[in-house]
Design brief:
The chain is an alpha/beta fold. The chain is built from 5 helices and 8 strands.
Length: 183
């Protein structure tokens, strides 16, 4: 009988522990970390804005100094709200013959980096030097998770824009962003 009581008590202990963890998880997800409870105010950068579908994004056709530590590069966005070399209107189809859309988080956005030092600019220059005429769109936004980037790509395509290639840049923080902040 002792063995049977021990097994019953252990099962109750594990069930209770699991139940408490589940309640804690629900509390954190719906009352503490839910994106609707995360305040997003207009910051001094003047370039980021809240978005109902993507949580946050970059403002279209904006120009602002974005401070990141001691760095303060000038940011420009195009008509899509993608970081770019300057303010411009992006056409539905590219005039260059080949379009690549790069999606990712702060690494892709190149947070704190002058445009001429971003890997997007350097990749486009590399292609041009090799005689390959292409347009590369930087769809990176700091802290966007893969699920939100998929929504961003769908929005881009549903608005009638075309691309020949999509590159998704992932990093280890995307796992936490996806599971904790954006569910």
């Amino acid at each position: 009988y002792r063995h049977r009581d021990f097994i019953i008590n252990m099962n109750l202990l594990f069930f209770s522990f699991g139940f408490v963890l589940s309640l804690g998880e629900l509390y954190l997800r719906f009352f503490y970390l839910h994106p609707s409870n995360v305040s997003f105010s207009s910051n001094s950068e003047g370039i980021r804005m809240p978005d109902n579908e993507l949580h946050h994004t970059l403002q279209p056709n904006a120009q602002s100094v974005v401070t990141w530590g001691d760095l303060a590069p000038v940011y420009y966005t195009n008509s899509l709200g993608f970081r770019d070399k300057g303010r411009r209107t992006v056409q539905k189809t590219t005039e260059s013959g080949y379009r690549i859309v790069v999606l990712g988080d702060s690494f892709t956005e190149s947070l704190g980096v002058e445009w001429s030092d971003t890997f997007i600019f350097k990749l486009e220059q590399h292609f041009k030097n090799d005689g390959f005429n292409s347009e590369i769109l930087n769809g990176g936004v700091a802290s966007l998770s893969p699920g939100l980037l998929l929504r961003k790509l769908r929005r881009f395509l549903h608005q009638g824009y075309t691309t020949d290639e999509v590159i998704l840049m992932l990093d280890i923080s995307d796992i936490e962003d996806e599971s904790v902040f954006y569910m």
